[in-house]
Amino acid sequence: MLIYLISLVNDENEREKFTAIYRQYHNQMGKVALRVLAEQKDAEDAVQNAWIQVIKHFQKVSEIPGEELLFWLISITKNEALMILRTKRNTTSFEEWDSVTEATNGTLDYQELVALFAKLPTTYRATLEMKFLLQYTDHEISQHLGISETAVSTRVSRGRSLLRDLVIKEGLLL
Amino acid sequence: MTEDDLDGLMHHVLMDALRMEWSDTLNAAPSFVASRRFQAQVRTMLADPFAWYRKKTLVPSGKKRFET
């Protein structure tokens, strides 16, 4: 992996590709970090951490199509910003899964389903994004979020079950 | 629905949730203006991304010894 990374990023074409991604998306990443953190220095730290992740996963990044890449980068930046926020507050807030999922008794269309997932507790959503968008391993997610691999599995499993139940219950046509 | 179908749907739902949540900010918020300190870091990063990455993620040798 290390040898691959060295050869990859040292390669002039790949460096140019990285620079192009930076120029196209750094402004949006900064906006995202600033909305979460409000303070300039914290936002810059979050953006820097996000670029570290981009380089670490550069093979994947270079294969993501354009429009998806924007939201891939937003996901990374937002989650880095939330981690800084959590560290600053020095708390791990109690995240209630049931209160979110109980609100699903009525009929849902696709947009409401999306809105429901947007409201999931922070580490649940971060875990799902890292698993299904960023394709991190459970171990990487665990290290990154500071939760156990069991907690990662629980969050992934609950997310899948919620989605499966809603699709079956609502008969969503996909 | 197979597990692969479900995971594919999850991907779309999460992507659309990000789009819904962040589109206004991306379109309306003022541009992000980096500080001079951050701009200097970015110049170093763009000059050699992997060297910058390695420096940023370097684990001090003392820490490695304690961990083993």
Describe the structure.
- The complex is a heterodimer of chains A (174) and B (68).
- Chain A contains 10 helices and no strands.
- Chain A has 174 residues and is mainly alpha-helical.
- In chain A, 78% of the residues lie in helices and 0% in strands.
- The mean pLDDT of chain A is 86.
- Chain B is mainly alpha-helical.
- Chain B has 4 helices and no strands.
- In chain B, helix 2 crosses helix 3.
- The longest helix of chain B has 26 residues, at 3-28.
- Chain A binds chain B through residues 5-6, 8-10, 15, 18-19, 22, 26-35, 40-41, 43-44, 47-48, 51-52, 55-56, 58, 68, 71, 74-75, 78, 111, 113-115, 117-118, 125, 128-129, 132-133, 159-160, 163-164, 167-168, 174, and chain B through 1, 5-7, 9-11, 13-22, 25-26, 29, 31-32, 34-35, 37-38, 41-42, 45-46, 48-50, 52-53, 56-57.
- Amount of helix of chain B: over 70%
Main β sheet profile of chain A: none
Q: What is the terminal-to-terminal distance of chain B?
A: 46 Å
* Alpha-carbon Rg of chain A, integer: 18 Å
Radius of gyration of chain B: 20 Å
- What is the percent of helical residues of chain A? over 70%
The count of strands of chain A amounts to: 0
Give the helix tally of chain A.
10
| Shape field of chain A | globular
Strand percent estimate of chain A: under 5%
Number of helices of chain B: 4
Helix/strand/pairing category of chain B:
mainly alpha
Mean pLDDT of chain A, nearest integer? 86
Low-confidence stretches of chain A: none
Mean pLDDT of chain B: 86
